[in-house]
Amino acid sequence: MILSEKHEMMKKLFRQFAETEFTTELLDKLEETGEFNRNIHDKMAKYGFMGTKIPVKYGGQGGDTLAYVLMVEEFARISPVLSIYANTSNSLAAGPLLFCGTEEQKLKYVAPVAKGEKILVFGLTEPGAGSDAGGTLTTAVQDGEYFVLNGRKTFISGAPFADHAIIYAKTDPTQKGSRGISMFLVDMKLPGVSCGKDEAKMGMLGYPTSDIILENVRVHKDDLLGPLHKGFSAAMKTLDGGRLGMAAQAVGIAQGCLEESIKYAKERKQFGRPIANFQAISFMLADMATEIEASRELVYNTAVLADTGSSDYTSRCAMSKYFASEMCNRIAYKAVQIHGGYGYIKEYKVERFYRDARITSIYEGTTQVQQMVISSNLLK
Amino acid sequence: MKIIVCVKQVPDTSEKVAVKEDGTMNRAAMKTITNPDDMNAVEAALAIKDYTPDCSVIVVSMGPPPAAEMLRELLAMGADEGVLISAREFGGSDTFATSQILAAAIRRIGFENTDMIFCGRQAIDGDTAQVGPQIAEKLGIPQISYVFRMQKTGNVLEVRRALEDGYMTIQVGTPCLLTCIKELNTPRYMTVKGIYESEGKPLQIFDYETLKDDSMIESDTIGIKGSPTNVYKSFSPPAKGTCVMLEGSGKEAVGKLFELLSQKHII
Question: Which homologous superfamily does the CATH classification assign to the domain defined by B2-211?
Answer without folding.
Answer: HUPs (3.40.50.620)
